[in-house]
Amino acid sequence: MASEMKDFHAVISEEVLPELNADHIIVFPSNGYWDSAENREAEKLFDSPLWKSMPAVKNGHVYQVDRTHWQSGAIYANMKKIDDLLNIFTK
């Protein structure tokens, strides 16, 4: 799926989850921060059987990041994304 993406991120429905065969997944909330009230419904996805059946989830390779720079293509935001990735993958 990632190799065919035209945009820098994708919003997908829960029904598409079984099609993901990702080794690692980076997720960020669409609004606010992870602890914001508007994200309570979205967090329910993490308890769904479809989500839990994915290889990246089973292997603990899901990373929640801050949306403020992940939803931007600005140079500074891209540098922050690289910092996030370095922190995630060099632990």
Helical stretch count? 5
Order of the strands making up the biggest sheet: 1-2
Number of strands: 2
Q: Output mean pLDDT.
A: 86
Into which percent range does the helicity of residues fall? 25-40%
Beta-strand share of residues = 5-15%
Order of helices and strands: EHHHEHH
Largest sheet: 2 strands, parallel
- Overall morphology: globular
Through-space gap between termini: 26 Å
Q: Poorly predicted ranges (pLDDT <50, ≥5 residues)?
A: none
Write the layout of secondary structure elements.
Layout: E1 25-27, H1 40-43, H2 49-52, H3 55-58, E2 62-64, H4 67-70, H5 75-89
Walk me through what this model shows.
This protein has 91 residues and is mainly alpha-helical. Helix content is 34%, strand content 7%. It has 5 helices and 2 strands. It has helices at residues 40-43, 49-52, 55-58, 67-70, 75-89; strands spanning 25-27, 62-64. The protein has a two-stranded parallel sheet with strand order 1-2. The model has no long low-confidence stretch (mean pLDDT 86).
How would you briefly describe this protein structure?
With 91 residues, this protein is mostly helical.
Keywords:
two-stranded parallel sheet; mainly alpha; 34% helix; 91 residues
